[in-house]
Amino acid sequence: MTTTEKQTAAGSPGDGPNLKAEGLYTRTLPTYFPLALLAGCLIVVAGAFYLLGAFHPVPVAVVAGIVYLAAVTTVSATVENGRRAADRFVTGIVYCCFIVAMVPLVSLLATVVVFGMERFDLYFLSVSMNGVIPSMDAGGVYHAIVGTLVITGLATVISVPIGLMTAVYVVEYGRGRLKQAITFFVDVMTGIPSIVAGLFVVALWILLFGPGNTNGLAGAIALSVLMIPVVVRSSEEMLRLVPNELREASYALGVPKWLTIVKVVLPTAVAGLTTGIILALARVIGETAPLILTAGMASTRIQANPLDGDMMSLPVYIYKAVRDMGLSGEAGVYAEQRAWAAALTLILVVMLLFLAARLVSRFLSPRSR
């Protein structure tokens, strides 16, 4: 081989690294190949399970995922190179983990929708259980919706100012041991079981008003005990994400610190703060144990006064319906239908709250002004 031929094979000095020698210039599988391979694996594995008489979606999905990972890695290593094969293998594991994580959520939502729609209608949403006995094919969930909105609304009114101002103090003003103590106790409160919060409010209520005084306000206070630490932690993290340059620019203009927080820091973090508040609300809206102890479970009438005796809520309504499923005859069937329909109603209420929070954060965000 002449000198010119050797230079051509190795590449001239100005051509940079030899891509072919380093394995960087290789063939590439079509973009549709992974999806087509996955579909083929599913068809083959499902057919094999069907022929064996043991077809079930879960084992079919697991085996198809394992076969797909092995196949895509082998084909990629053969056609492309080892680096891309490893990349496709890890990418496949990530997608499989995502699907595994989504299966319980999709299964839960599908189950609740399928069983809940048997009784979910306008009548069910617009009437209460006042005067309805378990064996009657009547009654609805309106009083529980009202109670849920009142109790969680009061809990939000109590928790958001306390949690937000605590987070502002920790981030903007807190120093030394007091700040450390607040952070420590907030972390401890985050892990408090809900039943403990209910027992705490029951004990407090007994000291103030005597035994047997359950109402919606007591339930709201119990939920606020659970909600405050979540608001504090989420708000604290959102406030820390606000760039210090914005604060310093405001200080340079002579704006006092409190006004900088009100006009600069909080509006900048409003989207994250709203999301944190909704997460805290979602944390408590489905709690049952503290509401059974504080708000009671005997109310069947429509009421919006949190001080007027027991107040029903959606989680407690579902609990009562599930407990009545043990009744004989048609009463158990009707109770099961009410339980599924109330669960669907609770999911829809949470979704509407999330949608409202997103709209609020969108309109209050500085970018939309």
From TrEMBL:
Tell me where the transmembrane regions lie.
32-52, 58-77, 89-115, 144-170, 182-208, 214-232, 264-285, 339-360
Matching entries from InterPro entries are given as: MetI-like, MetI-like_sf, Phosphate_PstA, Phosphate_transprt_permease
Q: Which UniProt keywords apply?
A: Cell membrane, Membrane, Phosphate transport, Transmembrane, Transmembrane helix, Transport
ABC transmembrane type-1 domain location, by residue? 145-357
Its main localization is membrane
SUPFAM superfamilies given in the database record: MetI-like
Membrane topology annotation: Multi-pass membrane protein
Entry keyword Transcription: no
Its localization reads:
Cell membrane
The record's Pfam families line, in alphabetical order, gives: BPD_transp_1
Q: Which Gene3D superfamilies match?
A: MetI-like
Q: Which residues form a coiled coil?
A: none
Q: Which family does it belong to?
A: Belongs to the binding-protein-dependent transport system permease family. CysTW subfamily.
Q: What does this protein do?
A: Part of the binding-protein-dependent transport system for phosphate; probably responsible for the translocation of the substrate across the membrane.
Q: What is this protein called?
A: Phosphate transport system permease protein PstA
This protein's species is: Streptomonospora halophila
Q: What is the lineage of its organism?
A: Bacteria, Bacillati, Actinomycetota, Actinomycetes, Streptosporangiales
Query: What gene does the UniProt entry assign to this protein?
Result: pstA
